[in-house]
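tokens incoming
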């Protein structure tokens, strides 16, 4: 059986920062309330011209570059999002086209849990031997579905995109186990009522502001603290591991209090838990891949780290995955980096001299050809 190594990772966050004090000018809230209740200090908001497609493509290009892979080598693209550019076509096909990939692509809607669903799906295509390279993206522009007069939601969310390349490998890396969960009986707690087939887009939808996200925060909070730790533990046990074997927990970045409760229930110290929500807020399906990328960039994840990702969100849904990281070098540079430092410096000088000599030889030839 093939394994799905995480071969590349990338992220994109919009430049525009919206701080808690900016929000104090919009709704009846305070920096103190937001920080103590959620841990969030600021979030990124997509600017003009930025869409879920453009942000996904930026994150994907970085992931492909790190994997040393061309888009044309992809076999499948999976995009987890609840904020596509259009109702139709699926944003996944727009991303495939913009990347220049020639492969299948589909979008997946599982709320904030979508990326872990996507990762587990990618692993199945690889394990079955059907595909070699699958791109998984989690991307959201929640800011455009937010009611900026509703303090219950507008202080929580932000925009971002994250992507990974999952690549077939013979070594047992990548997703070792996963758990997917759904409980639609809690659907009403996190919902956009308008714009679907039950309440198609109309003046009434706009008048009732039913095209915006509505959330019963307290209920979602209770649900999250019920499922998060259990889902993480089930995936860890499913991989034949114990919590002590886990190097880093990457939970969905919705609320610091939810994360702390889950860490306590799992007996994990907070230094084994990755948190970046203070800078981005809840970026829904993008939160886990963006956190993964930053954890790698900060050296919190290294070669052979055992990482647990766990998410929860609209549906209500939840999902967890245990991921064993493989080599973090770009494959095309791995050989180069394996050469000891001094030999590498000597090789660099030799290559520069060689290219200068080649240039000196080729220049008269070039001049003669262009003179004709
Ligand atoms: O990805 C999944 C998406 N959703 C979530 O993860 C959300 C999960 N839930 C939460 O994170 C928390 O429930 C919230 C942060 C949304 C709210 O925190 P809470 O401690 O559960 O507050 P609460 O809903 O119990 O509200 C407490 C009070 C209320 O006032 P009253 O009724 O006690 O007078 C709210 O009206 O806080 C009020 N409140 C605010 N006050 C200032 C609600 N939002 C705000 C606000 N600023 N932004």
């Amino acid at each position: 059986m093939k394994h799905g190594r995480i071969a590349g990772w990338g992220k994109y966050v919009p430049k525009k920062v919206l701080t808690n004090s900016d929000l104090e000018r919009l709704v009846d809230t305070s920096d103190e309330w937001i920080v103590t209740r959620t841990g969030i200090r600021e979030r990124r908001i997509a600017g003009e011209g930025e869409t879920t497609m453009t942000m996904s493509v930026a994150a994907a290009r970085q992931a492909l570059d790190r994997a040393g892979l061309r888009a044309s080598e992809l076999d499948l693209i999976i995009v987890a999002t609840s904020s596509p550019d259009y109702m139709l076509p699926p944003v996944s096909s727009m991303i495939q086209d913009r990347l220049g990939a020639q492969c299948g692509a589909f979008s997946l809607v599982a709320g904030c849990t979508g990326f872990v669903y996507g990762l587990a799906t990618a692993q199945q295509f690889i394990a079955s031997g059907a595909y070699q390279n699958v791109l998984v993206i989690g991307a959201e522009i929640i800011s455009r579905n937010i009611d900026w007069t509703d303090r219950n939601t507008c202080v929580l969310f932000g925009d971002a995109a994250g992507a990974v390349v999952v690549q077939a490998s013979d070594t047992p890396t990548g997703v070792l186990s996963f758990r997917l969960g759904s409980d639609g009986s809690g659907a009403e707690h996190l919902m956009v009522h308008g714009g679907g087939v039950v309440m198609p887009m109309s003046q009434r939808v706009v008048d009732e502001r039913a095209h915006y996200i509505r959330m019963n925060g307290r209920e979602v909070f209770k649900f999250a603290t019920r499922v998060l730790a259990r889902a993480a533990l089930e995936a860890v046990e499913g991989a034949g591991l114990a919590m002590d074997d886990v190097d880093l927990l990457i939970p969905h970045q919705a609320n610091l209090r939810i994360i702390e409760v889950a860490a306590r229930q799992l007996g994990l110290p907070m230094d084994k838990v990755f948190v970046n929500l203070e800078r981005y807020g809840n970026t829904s399906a993008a939160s886990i891949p963006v956190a993964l990328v930053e954890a790698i960039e900060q050296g919190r994840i290294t070669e052979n780290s055992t990482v647990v990702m766990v998410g929860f969100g609209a549906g209500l849904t939840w999902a967890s995955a245990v991921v064993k990281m493989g080599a973090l070098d770009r494959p095309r540079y791995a050989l180069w980096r394996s050469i000891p430092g001094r030999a590498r410096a000597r090789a660099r000088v030799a290559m520069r001299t060689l290219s200068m000599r080649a240039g000196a030889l080729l220049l008269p030839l070039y001049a003669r050809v262009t003179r004709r």
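note: Residues 29, 33, 37-38, 112, 151-152, 155, 190, 215, 217-218, 220-221, 224, 254-255, 282, 313 surround oxa(dethia)-CoA (CB under 6 Å).
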